[in-house]
Input
Amino acid sequence: MTPPDSLADVLTRSLADAIALLFPVSCAGCDEPDVSLCDVCRGALAPAVARDRLASGLEVWSGLAFEGVAARVIRALKEDGRTGLARPLAVPLRAALVEAASAVGVVDAVVPVPTSRAAYRRRGFRVVDLVARRSGVRAERLLVPARSTADQRGLGIDARRANVGGSMRARDTDARRALVVDDVVTTGATLDEAARALRAAGVEVAGGVCVARTPRHARATS
Ligand SMILES: [Zn+2]
Output
């Protein structure tokens, strides 16, 4: 039961297809030529919201499993800078936000985890903020990096925790109760750090919301 495409969606897709004729692209999910995301792969991004509880107790809602087409499309956005993919990825994020909001009740802020300065310099945009914006929520950048961190990929649970611990701080805010948003939840170390920083600023953290979650076995072992 997907809602009908808005005119803006149709125009965006037409524009993407038109640009594809000028600058050859291939589907981010399957490499089909001349389309940025084919209909089959767009269908593979249909929301399948899952709810997890981190060891810290924080509950996290995710719109997709981070595997197959979803993983390829997220990587194409993050690593190849294909920002047009933020819009289709906003669909599962929005579904996860809706489920989270109905479970936790009223929140007065939706807060993206901060983008490191190095990642922002490299990409020129903030992945999480962009997808959150495309999902239609007003994301408030209440969290900022407090120090630089290493790339989390390839680090185990303890190393991730040590890497991100104390890496964020919250701006002064009147917000009382927030949901924290990230792109992919793996061990949850980043969401836990975001929650710690917000709580230190007096904000209650009602839960986490992500575009995608790594499969359980990967979360337990990586
Ligand atoms: Zn495809």
User: Anything to note?
Assistant: The two ends are 35 Å apart (CA to CA). The chain has two domains: 7-44, 46-221. The first strand starts at residue 50 and ends at 53. Residues 27, 29-30, 32, 38, 40-41 surround zinc ion (CB under 6 Å).
